[in-house]
Amino acid sequence: MTIEQRLADVCQKIEAAEREAGRSRGAVTLVAVSKTFEADAIRPVIVSGQRIFGENRVQESEGKWPALKAETPGIELHLIGPLQSNKAANAVALFDVIETVDREKIARALASEMKIQGRTPKLYVQVNIGMEPQKAGIEPKETVAFVAFCRKELALSVEGLMCIPPAEGHPGPYFALLEKLARECGVEKLSMGMSGDFETAIGFGATSVRVGSAIFGHR
């Protein structure tokens, strides 16, 4: 299949999963994960109509997205990889959504940079939903308090939660836990589900899914 056909196939699967879950068409946003791919590989996906993309690294994104954004108005760029505090200024300048707010130091750095730059990217808190030591994120039991801290202490507008469930086992219980935490936090957006499990995530209330290899293939 071509990259355009793979994109269409993913979109059809999202629509089918929405129907199966009894959700309205268009309830779920596709974030096409373009990390490690060059601009020439991304352009056909943009030409096909996709406007929302996810990247893992600030520096890599700076090398390709300013030009791509200039070529096509309306691109929305999500940071879905870990953010270091020394890259906060760059991230605020380039990204429209930052999904990986995962500790107080990053939240403070973002709050400071947003004031300096006058830019307000949308923010998601990353939850280490499986409490895995190798993964970033706030522990589930600390999530409600951390979201409240971001809002009350730093005046940050947190609109969603994001997670990457453990690779082993069924992801459903982890998606269900993130949805429960979102309700407790009073946030509406849930970024969960990737190429291997996005249909399951939609059944548990995902509002956006992050799909890379099913669209772009493997490097």
Describe this structure in words.
This protein is an alpha/beta fold and 219 residues long. The chain contains ten helices and eight strands. It has an eight-stranded parallel beta sheet with strand order 7-6-5-4-3-2-1-8. It is globular.
Present the secondary structure layout:
Elements: H1 3-20, E1 29-33, H2 39-47, E2 52-55, H3 58-62, H4 65-71, E3 76-79, H5 88-94, E4 97-101, H6 104-117, E5 122-127, H7 143-152, E6 158-163, H8 172-185, E7 189-191, H9 198-203, E8 208-211, H10 213-216
Parallel strand pairs: 1-2, 1-8, 2-3, 3-4, 4-5, 5-6, 6-7
Helix pairs in contact: 5-6, 7-8
H/E element sequence: HEHEHHEHEHEHEHEHEH
Structural class: alpha/beta
Termini separation comes to 16 Å
Low-confidence stretches: none
Q: What is the percent of helical residues?
A: 40-55%
Number of strands: 8
Major sheet attributes: 8 strands, parallel
Largest sheet: spatial strand order: 7-6-5-4-3-2-1-8
Number of helices: 10
What is the residue-averaged pLDDT?
A: 97
Question: What is the approximate shape?
Answer: globular
Query: Roughly how many Å is the radius of gyration?
Result: 17 Å
Instruction: Please report which band the strand proportion falls in: under 5%, 5-15%, 15-25%, 25-35%, 35-45% or over 45%.
Output: 15-25%
Highlighted features:
alpha/beta, 17% strand, 219 residues, 10 helices, 8-stranded parallel sheet
Please give a quick description of this structure.
With 219 residues, the chain is an alpha/beta fold. The chain has helices at 3-20, 39-47, 58-62, 65-71, 88-94, 104-117, 143-152, 172-185, 198-203, 213-216, and strands spanning 29-33, 52-55, 76-79, 97-101, 122-127, 158-163, 189-191, 208-211. β3, α5 and β4 form a beta-alpha-beta unit.
